[in-house]
Amino acid sequence: MAKVLMLLPERDYDPTEAAVPWAALRKAGHEVIFATPGGQPAFADPRMVKHGFGLLNPLLMTRPDGLAAYRDMCSDPPFAHPIRHQDWASVEHDALLVPGGHAQGVKTLLESEAAQQCVVASFAANLPVAAICHGPVLLARSRMADGRSVLHGRKTAALTCALEYSGWLMTCFWLGRYYRTYPTTVQAEVSAALASADDFVSGPLPLRRDRRDHPEYGFVVRDGQYVSARWPGDSHAFAAAFVALLAEQR
């Protein structure tokens, strides 16, 4: 079975995007270890876990299965004892997982030079890598010796402009820029790192979220050893695709 390294920020990641893949990996018998900026346990965006969005909860709040998976992940002993980003090379791993999130704390992952080095080394070793939502921003910023992103020449999904702006428009009057992590959209930054803008794959209109019993509602892009997806509504399909990729490594 594989040992999967999950890169997390100090705080504020999306609970569904981290915990649904974690649960699928553990069910398949894989080991998951965690890395955070300071080697402390990292907890998800509290608005997505507890505080919610009032009347907008049916559209924006984490679904019950995602919350249940997140609670299980937080009770997993490796979660309580992560390594530091800078110590990634000291721990052998067979695959890499990068969840997303949009609140400001996720920047401690996306701007981590050590995490970027881990990404570059993982791609150079042709390890299976999975990234969802804002996760591909970290990959876009991870530069090889020639200055190109590890995503250059690959096809990828990530949070689309339509999804990012829809969340912001629904909440900006009371949450400000909560849904806008950076002035530049995720799609724009990731696309700029690709060999062609056509390599950014938006997928079909996300009219519903996928579920454990209906992963086909989600959308995933696979390019060789790399799997990517757009938002929490793709998490079950994303998890299934990553588990399938790891099964091929046996």
Automatic annotation (TrEMBL):
<dbReference type="InterPro" id="IPR029062">
    <property type="entry name" value="Class_I_gatase-like"/>
</dbReference>
<dbReference type="InterPro" id="IPR032633">
    <property type="entry name" value="ThiJ-like"/>
</dbReference>
<protein>
    <submittedName>
        <fullName>Uncharacterized protein</fullName>
    </submittedName>
</protein>
<dbReference type="Pfam" id="PF17124">
    <property type="entry name" value="ThiJ_like"/>
</dbReference>
